[in-house]
């Protein structure tokens, strides 16, 4: 067992005081950098070293593979390359199994491989909520993406939820008809406010329009990035909290 897995098996400590509990996940220091210690939901990507904040995690989004066309062997087609933590029992209240997709042209064998991996996580006793697809769909391709997600939703066992990452301009520039096709298919959209390892400078101009999607959404932050919570999020009936992408110093 690696050091990250060993840390994740430690039961989260009880936090003293109701105020501190309320601050976790929902509050963000105004005009400051993203301090992961203020949150309790995290993306855990391959290669990220152990951090103390993982001991307080209630929700984890754990990368388990990259889906892409083989560059070295194009004839082999689309492959799922396993990454991230080995299958083990995790104590968090919610665990999402994440797949980073670079293509939507999935062969039948890939679906079987993916679902088998998710079921192995579930069999350990880990509280698997479902899967998350991390795919950078442009606004003009949302209709095609929605069609892919409908098919994936039908393949998932009913007790699993479906989460996706999203781009901030979906609320501003996406065709409302294309967005509406995601309703009843995905359970949440986690909107990324960063690119690479830095916050997108003009994120504040996009966030007030996210309610136009009419979908439950969370806001994805980058650890150490710039962040000031807009009032629009506090007032939104669709906002469900934050997810912090952990990174090495």
TrEMBL record:
<dbReference type="InterPro" id="IPR017853">
    <property type="entry name" value="GH"/>
</dbReference>
<feature type="signal peptide">
    <location>
        <begin position="1"/>
        <end position="32"/>
    </location>
</feature>
<keyword id="KW-0732">Signal</keyword>
<protein>
    <submittedName>
        <fullName>DUF3142 domain-containing protein</fullName>
    </submittedName>
</protein>
<dbReference type="Pfam" id="PF11340">
    <property type="entry name" value="DUF3142"/>
</dbReference>
<dbReference type="InterPro" id="IPR021488">
    <property type="entry name" value="DUF3142"/>
</dbReference>
């Amino acid at each position: 067992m690696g050091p990250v897995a060993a840390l994740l098996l430690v039961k989260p400590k009880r936090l003293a005081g109701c105020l501190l509990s309320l601050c976790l996940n929902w509050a963000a220091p105004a005009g400051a950098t993203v301090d992961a210690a203020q949150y309790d939901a995290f993306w855990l990507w391959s290669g990220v070293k152990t951090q103390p904040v993982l001991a307080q995690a209630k929700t984890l989004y754990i990368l388990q593979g990259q889906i892409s066309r083989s560059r070295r062997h194009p004839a082999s087609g689309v492959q799922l390359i396993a990454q991230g933590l080995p299958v083990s029992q995790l104590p968090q209240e919610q665990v999402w199994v994440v797949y980073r997709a670079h293509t939507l042209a999935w062969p039948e064998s890939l679906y079987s491989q993916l679902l088998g991996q998710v079921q192995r996580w579930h069999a350990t006793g880990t509280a698997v909520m479902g899967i998350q697809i991390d795919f950078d769909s442009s606004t003009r391709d949302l209709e095609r993406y929605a069609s892919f997600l409908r098919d994936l939703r039908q393949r998932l066992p009913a007790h699993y939820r479906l989460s996706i990452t999203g781009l901030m301009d979906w609320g501003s520039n996406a065709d409302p008809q294309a967005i509406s096709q995601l309703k009843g298919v995905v359970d949440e959209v986690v909107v990324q406010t960063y690119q690479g390892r830095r916050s997108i400078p003009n994120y504040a101009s996009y966030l007030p329009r996210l309610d136009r999607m009419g979908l439950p959404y969370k806001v994805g932050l980058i650890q150490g990035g710039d962040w000031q919570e807009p009032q629009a999020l506090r007032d939104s009936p669709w906002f469900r909290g934050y997810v912090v992408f952990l990174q090495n110093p």
